[in-house]
Amino acid sequence: MKKVIALLLALVLLLGMAACGNPGESQNPNQNQNQDNQIVNLVFAYPIFFNDPQDLQEVQDAMNAITADAIGVTVELKPMSFGNYIVQSNMMLTGNEDLDLFLCFDDSTFHQYASRGQLLDITDLVAQKADLDAHIDRLGTRECFYINGKMYGYPSGQYYGSGLGLFIRADYAAALDIDTEKEYTLRELGDVFEQLKTNFPNVAPLAPLSASSYAVDWVNFLNCEFDDYGLLSEDGTSYENYFASEQYKEVLEIAREWNQKGYFINDPDTNQNDHMLLAFSGMAASYFMANPVNNLSNEFVCLNIDYTPIVTTSIYQTAVLAVPSYSEKGEAVMKYLNFCATHPEVANLYMYGIEGKHYVVTDEENGLINYPAGMNPMILTYAPTSFMEFSQGVYWYNTGGIEDYEGTREAYYARMVPSKVLGFTFNTEGLQNEITAVTSVLAKYRRSLENGTVDYNEYLPQMLAELENAGYGTILAEKNRQLTEWLARK
Amino acid sequence: MKKVQTKTKYSKLKKYLPLYVMFIPGAVYLIINNYLPMFGLQVAFKQYNPVDGIWGSKFIGFKNFEFLVKSSDFGIIFRNTLLYNLVFLFLGAVLAVLLAVFLNEVRSKTHLKILQTIILIPSVISMIVVSYIVYGFLASNGVINNMLTYLGLENVDFYKETSFWPFILSFVNFWKNLGMSSIVYYAAIVSFDESYYEAADLDGASAWKKARYITIPLLKPTIIMMLVIGVGRICASDLSLFYYVPQDQGALFSVTNTIDTYVYRALLRYNDVGMSSAAGALQSVIGFILVIIVNALSKKGNDERALF
After folding, report:
1. In chain A, which among 447-476 make CB contacts under 8 A with chain B?
2. Which of B144, B128, B162 has its CA nearest to residue B247?
3. Tens digits of residue pLDDT in A449-487
4. CA A214, CA A451: separation in Å to the nearest integer?
5. A470 closest CB neighbour out of B32, B72, B140
């Protein structure tokens, strides 16, 4: 009996130690290491659009070999699949998980995190780093990264634009002799899909971007400036309900028409795959992609679409680098980013992997590279990633055979028109009830409507009625109030 | 007199000491896992701000509950949660007991092992995998629609048609969970005194009569206990069942939206710790009250049947 009791007691003690000891133990060795070698390790989370990179460790080691010596900072890369990145990064942030730098994706999450105090105020940290500060000056839109007067995010990109292109698999485009020079209207794109459909009956002409997006959701961005909570009026002084607008109706008309003509993949509502997988596996022939000039490749031909691209606050806020407020390594993060800004070799490793293995340089002078022979991003062991373009002089990836890439890009971005309300951020604080209700109404209808799987004549009025019921009007009124205030201050 | 009392108290303590010691690990587990987190429940009444922490955040009363209770969908999601749970609870109990009785009638050891394995396999498959299996059956080019085409019948768009989903979800739930719950009843049945059945055999009772007059009456305390426990979770729902199996389809919300899926979807964009805690707290409080009521009701007939 006594033995049993003793054993039990020992077990309880063990359990107790396991319960209390773990967190302390796991942190201590790291801290000791930091003190010994003066090396700070940062955890960096970001979304990826391809398979899990098998060579991640190798790339990470190569990056760390450079930065450990130079500035005493290393990174632990945490790539996560794009499809569930927002949910996963949100969980990490809310759960105070080990995280020092992450890509804050989606403009609405950025300002929510920031206004709720979940992001570190980096105003002073950035101001102290001349190279980082210079990059924001170059963009000329400081206000987009400020919430309530403080800077919470750092722009990850070099160029910002809202363009849209239709990427068609190059082999299909060549077989059909599609004109890649002209600018297409949406109706004309329908003809292209029809051509694809008749010539390749087993391939769906158009793929959605990812499991969480809809077949035509990018088309929403054409010719108007909007988000879930309003469409900006022509003169830029007020917002109206986007979902009740003529523009939205037109998008739904097109979605319905294209769906009924069979231009979308089978069962678009229940799709679980990303555009790349669908295109490379031969299930779909094309997809819409924003900022086409940044996404060119030899596998795809890009058709330009005829419209005026507008650059808005949310475009700048869609992918910002941010530091969680609980991270104590804000200083080291800025040191690291500052180093990357002037040392493209680190950014190149992060974005493209190791030269010779994951990419080959085709034009040293103009900084053009390509995949190694016989490779594509689906089978590469380190597929290209993004979000460090702020680094000066990084290679330009796979330019799809355009000779004067630099010129093409400059010309492309020259077309951008800045929004009339660039810099205005809608603060949703105090509107929780309305926004959660509106979110669930949109979740209920938008997917089927924008995939064209239901008749919008029947369901759009239903959605609008439910939106009104959910308090959409209250949100709109508050947004207009804030806009008026912002305009007056300006 | 007093001395004697303390002495008996002491000897009682000594007598039961091993039991108390055995209780310690469980108690430690419960305190760490179930009671300490309750301090965090206050987040439900606060405007949580990670910088100020749980204690420092601003107290805002019941404001966090509004998004749920004031929502125009609250009626639907509350109804769905309740009705599905009632079906899962009561029909589930009936089916699990029947299955357990059936298992008890299987005499061959090999057959029993094979059967148990078949029944239990679904409960170890992840719900995500299950959702794809279901999709394989119900998709527009899935098994069922192919069969319908073969038979010359019109295809059904299952992911748009609400009328099938109460049955599909119930079926998936039972297919996945029945094995586990029937094991509890089966374990109880195995422990019953064989002599009851021998006596019944002598009287020439059929298998059905034995089940009806011996097994089920003896099982009653177990059934009631399982129901009381189940009632505690009547406002909660299996998120993976209601979110992933219907593939998050908006057209199906009227029959698949439960409190959990609504909260998950609504807060996906507006991630607020306070609001999600409020929803959890509401579910727990309703469950707690119901457990007390049902337990009191079950006490009415016979004290022994009650859980506490």
Report:
1. 447-448, 453-454, 466, 469-470
2. B128
3. 999 889 999 999 999 999 999 999 999 999 999 999 999
4. 6
5. B72
